[in-house]
Amino acid sequence: MRGFDLIVIGGGLVGGAVAFGAARLGARVALLDEGDVAFRAARGNFGLVWIQSKGAGMPPYAHWSRQSAALWAGLSDALSEVTGVAPALRQNGGFAFCLSDDEFARQAERVQRMHNESGGIGTRMLDRAELRAMLPQVGDEVVGAAFCPIDGHANPLLLLRGLQAGLLAKGGEYLPGRHVDAIDYDGGFTVQCGAERFTCAKVVIAAGLGSRDLAPMVGLEMPVTPLKGQILVTERVRPFLDYATHVVRQTDEGSVMMGDSQEDVGFDIRTTTPVLKDIAARNIKVFPLLREANVVRTWGALRVMTPDGCPIYEESVSHPGAFSATCHSGVTLAGAHAMALAPAILGAGLPPAMKAFEAARFKSGKINVPSF
Amino acid sequence: MFRRFDAASVAFTFEGMPVMAAAGETVAAALLAAGVRSVRTTAVSGSARAPWCMMGVCFDCLVEIDGVANRQGCMVVVSPGMVVRRQVGAKDLG
Question: A297 to chain B: which residues are within 8 Å by CB?
Fold first, then answer.
């Protein structure tokens, strides 16, 4: 039976970031990854570091996202230094396009409301002329956009690979093919995977959609459900888009990714032509030159959604040392997870400001509508 | 390296040079038969590539055909007068 300071259950972006962040501080860490039977949001991710719309109606989430945006460059540098795998972070701002005057008015209202609730981060509305000056390729149907200077994007697969490689480089263990059957508690934790047992002082449940069943083993609740997104990827083309946007981004190697569909259809990751067609049509309105691009891949993946779309972080009252960590923005929040959450879990526990993320909020009767 | 069984009767150009192909041959096959060793450079590192799978999956035979970038040479049959150019790096959406 092997022992660790910390076991993280869930080998995706949330678990990987917490595990790397802890190993970086010298903890003995094991990362348990279920295997390819898991739904693996981390492998279908769009790759945005997206701050501007996060936490409308929930300022702690807005502040946490902003903190992550500020910590991301440090995470990127740490991964590059430790592993040589740079996650292709580009954080020079992001656009949310408006295709009608109505959409423009709603966006402007949201930007103002978030400014009032959580303070300013420089998000501003751009009319058609201002937008054209920054993005000459946008189509005539684009009325304007919200631009947030701290938004960005990264390569989510390189991030995942870097986090796992970084964990190994810092002496941690990545243990794939481990389905957790039980977690016993006697002041410390014993995690049971088939015939194997691992012990640890602290444990983090960060298993995405698998968290719902694991959390009650340590007195926590993680009522997450799937929300499908579909993505189209084009052939590599010459650089034309140097910024993140909420619907389309060009990767560092030239591929164009298009996405942002949302379907509440259970555990179904199939792609469907009508949804892909809608995504393509909307993006051709935004960037008419995409008409000339050939699509080379499509896929569907499941976001991990809480009832209000905001993350859950909590330490168990009945099983102190057991933590929950889940969100639908594993890329955006990777900076905070590695550089702020992991140290807190290893140290004195979650700071008081993070009480807002406890799952008890879902029982209060008033649940905010999910925001992206 | 490659020997053609049928007579070459279809004339087209590659990078402005005249090339002869047999009727029904693909652009990629005709270029290989003509001794062309590299038809494109890659989008990221710019290194040279030649047709490889010859069945439409590897995308290493990309060429510009009659002004259209990123065509798969192995999936297009040569026609008389076709103007074929090297695909240099990533396609430009213009």
Answer: none
Closest chain B C-alpha to A269 CA, distance in angstroms: 24
Query: Taking CB atoms and an 8 Å limit, are A238 and B44 in contact across chains?
Result: no
Residue A260 pLDDT level (bands cut at 50, 70, 90): confident
CB contact under 8 A, B90 and A237: yes
Q: Measure CA of the first residue to CA of the last residue in chain A; give whole Å.
A: 42
User: Same domain for A282 and A324?
Assistant: no
Count structural domains, chain A: 3
Cα(A246)–Cα(A370) distance, integer angstroms: 16
- CATH number of the domain enclosing A199: 3.50.50.60
A77-90 burial, b for 16+ CB within 10 Å, e for fewer? Answer: ebbeebbebbbbbb
Number of structural domains chain B divides into: 1
Residue contact A290–B93, C-beta within 8 A: yes
**ipTM of the complex as predicted:** 0.86
Judged by CB atoms closer than 8 Å, whether chains meet at B90 and A236 is answered as yes
Query: A266: phi > 0 → left, psi -120 to 50 → alpha, else beta; which?
Result: left
Chain B residues within an 8 Å CB radius of A290? 93
Q: In this structure, are residues A123 and A181 in contact, taking their beta carbons and an 8 Å threshold?
A: no
Tens of pLDDT, residue by residue over B40-84, are: 999 999 999 999 999 999 999 999 999 999 999 999 999 999 999
CA distance A78 to chain B (A): 25
Q: Is the residue at B93 inside a domain?
A: no
Q: Are A108 and A126 in contact (CB under 8 A)?
A: no
Q: Are residues A28 and A136 in the same domain?
A: no
Classify residue A72: in a domain, yes or no: yes
**Residue A237 is nearest to which of B44, B59, B92, comparing CB atoms?**
B92
A366, part of any domain: no
Q: What are phi and psi of B49, to 5 degrees?
A: -140, 150
Range of the domain at A285: 225-305
Contact residues for A319 (Cβ-Cβ < 8 A; gap 6+): A185, A189, A218, A219, A220
Q: DSSP per residue over B5-28, as a string?
A: SS---EEEEETTEEEEE-TT-BHH
Residues A178 and A214 in one domain: yes
Residues of B in contact with A283 (CB under 8 A): none
Residue-wise pLDDT for A28-48, tens only, equals: 999 999 988 888 999 999 999
Nearest CA in chain A to B90: A237
Q: Please list the residues that pair with A200 across neighbouring strands.
A: A4, A189
Please state whether the predicted TM-score (pTM) of the whole model is above 0.90: yes
